[in-house]
Amino acid sequence: YIFDLPFRKAVAFTGSGELTMEGLKDHEEIFKKIIDPKEIEALLSWYTSYYEFGETLTEEMIHEYELIYPALKQREIASRAEKKLFMELTTAGFNWDYFKFKNQYFKKEDYLVFGNAKATLQTEAVHAERLAVKNKFLQLHESLQKYISGLKLQENTNAEAIVSSSDISYHTANKIQSMWLAYGRRAAELKKYSDDALFANFMSMLVIILPKNIGLWLVPGKAGTGKEDREFFQRQMLDAAYRATFFRLLSSLGAGYWIEIVGERKPVESFQNEEVLWEFTKADQWPYFDFIIGKNYSLGDVEISNDNITSTITKEFDKLILLYRHMKDNSTDNK
Using CB atoms within 10 A of its CB, is residue 242 exposed (0-12), middle (13-18) or buried (19+)? Predict the structure, then answer.
């Protein structure tokens, strides 16, 4: 940035902050201030050389970029998530031995099977470790089944798919970095859409294990799923009363909850009002990006111990179910 000042003076700043609110205000960026006239003149000359060789932006360029943008953004999100996990597991004094797993429902080995070292492996030993986690989810499901039925939710009608697949071919990039137990629409509801409607293509409530977390998530849709619910939600958000209710329900989830749109995850308490929240949700694009509302529990948290994990799930699902009902497309209920 180069500024002309009164009395033939100038000042320049070189740095990493782009000309956006985030680049100038919200994110931490580093700049160097330059006041030497010769250095400023050199910067101006450098900029001019780039400008002269630049191409004028056209509608055709914008259209072509729109076509490739989702794929570029998906790779950026995946890369950012991998770097974040890498930093969390290798820096800031992280050590598996610091955590007490004796009374935890999921043990150290349950988390490790979803780490980078094993995510792409297909050996018998790793497969057995994944099946052990799957069996723990099935036991958890048995303890939750009556409660889930009371919420008028249902597990996948395919008995083999109550817990997500342990076959890497069903996972993005052939990497198993998570496993989950999902609840959503009942079979009768799905038939109102079509005879071959898939449980996984609609809004769900998940209990999910990740390389170092357990998550309780409301998922309007993963990338490429949730078309009906997510488009319904966007239409409903045009109504001020609907927006106000959504804001109230989201805010009432409390500390620790976040909402993720197009790879950006924000704490629910960071939204000052429903209009700010609405602007954030407008970015959702169901064919390309995940839409998730959730809360994660860290290794060793007492809430996910043997004694507490079931009560924790029911307590948090009692809050998430209100959002589920508010956001879900019910347009077929009267068909």
Answer: middle
Q: Of the candidates 189, 187, 209, 207, which has an alpha carbon nearest to the alpha carbon of residue 115?
A: 209
What is the C-alpha separation between 137 and 56, in angstroms, rounded? 56
Output DSSP code: residue 267.
E
**Number of Cα atoms under 13 Å in the Cβ half of residue 297:** 21
pLDDT, tens only, 18-72: 888 878 777 788 899 999 999 999 999 999 988 888 888 999 999 999 999 999 9
- Long-range contacts of residues 322-326, Cβ cutoff 8 Å, at least 24 apart: 322/249, 323/218, 323/246, 323/249, 323/250, 323/253, 323/293, 324/203, 324/205, 324/218, 326/242, 326/245, 326/246, 326/249
Eight-class DSSP state of 184: B
Query: Exposed, middle or buried, 324 (CB in 10 Å: 0-12/13-18/19+)?
Result: buried
Residue 166 near residue 136, CB atoms below 8 Å: no
- The string of DSSP letters for 187-201 reads HHHHHTT-TT--GGG
Q: If you search the block for the tokens 């309780």, which residue do you land on? A: 216
On the 0-12 / 13-18 / 19+ scale of CB atoms within 10 A, 220 is buried
For CA atoms 144, 150, 151, 156, give the dihedral sign. Answer: positive
Condensed to tens digits (0 to 9), the pLDDT of residues 187-228 reads: 888 888 887 788 889 999 999 999 999 999 999 999 999 999
